[in-house]
Design goal:
Layout (H helix, E strand, L loop, with lengths): L1 E6 L4 E8 L3 E9 L1 H5 L6 H23 L8 E7 L3 H18 L3 E5 H12 L7 E6 L4 E8 L2 E7 L5 H11 L7 H8 L24 H16 L6 H27 L3 E5 L6 H14 L2 E3 L10 H13 L23
Parallel strand pairs: 1-4, 4-5, 6-9, 9-10
Antiparallel strand pairs: 1-2, 2-3, 6-7, 7-8
Helix pairs in contact: 2-3, 4-10, 5-7, 5-8, 6-8, 8-9
């Protein structure tokens, strides 16, 4: 069965055709990074307008690359939550119109579930249950994946997401948006022990994250040096910051795996492309005899293939939407398993 997946939750307009949940036939992404870089981050209004301009040709390109037409598509899957509301509405509106006109089932997909599902594309042998660390620009979660469509969030950020922390630290160090890849590159040349940065804790919530204090520590260190007329070695700060955030993510994930009895772990989301995070997680899993699954780099960021993949599992579980489907800016992954 072929699923057309549509993703527009932030600043990538993406469409993909995936067969039987794992065989990617096409994966088209129209990125807006160059435009948003001028402003140091995503401008929601601009993102929405570019989605509206791009979505028709991106969908057609996905069908063309897959060598099929709408007649060959079994269902249309679309990200409906969470994300920038204006951006979501472009994808949802387009998907509704396409599904209605082509008489195809419409499947609503949760964005975080899509990130998790990216692992099924790269690793067809991965099957629930397992523990997944989801780290991206807007989300930081530790999730029990109980089944392909059932989840339990056991840890989440209380303030900034890991990806947001990367971008804010990078901006302070003078790197362009998005900052994660620049910090990753600089960290390879720096001393990870040059700066002692905090490992914030959330009292009474051992699996929850807090990255605001880490971000503030980097900003204050850099600004204090500037006020004294001193310079900060950007490579050393990048390496120290990346090691700190990697240690925090690994510590929480490994604690959850041990306490909940998981020997199979996965990582997902944009930050899962970071080499420091991937290396630290792999080392920790090897030391504990755990199996780690990581998506291919091209499926770490937002893409239509992950939505089509999760859409397949949602479809076979009976999930459907009608013309009343709306975009939802904030929706916990837990809500999908209720009722």
């Amino acid at each position: 069965m072929k699923i057309l997946g549509i993703e527009s939750s932030c600043d990538e307009t993406a469409c993909s055709v995936v067969e039987d949940g794992k065989n990617v036939l096409s994966n088209i992404v129209a990125s807006q990074i160059d435009e948003h870089r001028l402003y140091g981050g995503v401008v929601p209004e601009i993102a929405s307008r570019r989605h509206a301009e791009n979505i028709s040709w991106v969908a057609k390109a996905a069908l063309d690359e897959a060598g099929c037409t709408l007649d060959d598509i079994g269902a249309i899957a679309v990200t409906y939550a969470p994300g920038l509301i204006g951006a979501l509405l472009v994808g949802v509106s387009f998907a509704k119109g396409l599904a209605m006109s082509a008489h195809k089932p419409l499947v609503p997909v949760h964005h975080i579930a899509g990130h998790i599902a990216a692992n099924y594309i790269s690793h067809p042998d991965l099957k629930p249950p397992y523990l997944c660390l989801v780290v991206s620009g807007g989300h930081s979660h530790i999730v029990e994946v109980l089944d392909y469509t059932k989840y339990r969030v056991i840890g989440r950020t209380r303030d900034d997401a890991a990806g947001e922390c990367f971008d804010k630290a990078a901006r302070t160090l003078g790197y362009e948006y998005p900052g994660g890849k620049f910090i990753d590159a600089a960290a390879k040349k720096g001393d990870p022990d040059a700066f002692k940065l905090p490992h914030p804790k959330v009292q009474g919530s051992e699996y929850d994250f807090s990255f605001s204090g880490l971000k503030t520590a980097v900003i204050n260190t850099v600004h204090n040096a500037e006020q004294k007329g001193e310079s900060i070695n950007r490579e050393d700060m990048s390496a120290s910051f990346q090691k700190t955030i990697s240690d925090i993510l690994v510590e929480k994930a490994m604690l959850a795996a041990e306490n909940f009895g998981y020997k199979t772990l996965a990582v997902a989301g944009g930050v899962s492309a970071n080499s420091g995070v991937r290396t630290a997680l792999q080392k920790a899993c090897d030391e504990r005899g755990c199996r780690l699954y990581m998506p291919e780099l091209k499926y770490c960021g937002d893409n239509g293939a992950m939505i089509a993949c999760q859409g397949y599992y949602d479809y076979i579980s009976g999930k459907r939407a009608d013309e009343s489907l709306n975009g939802i800016a904030t929706l916990s992954l837990d809500k999908l398993s209720e009722g």
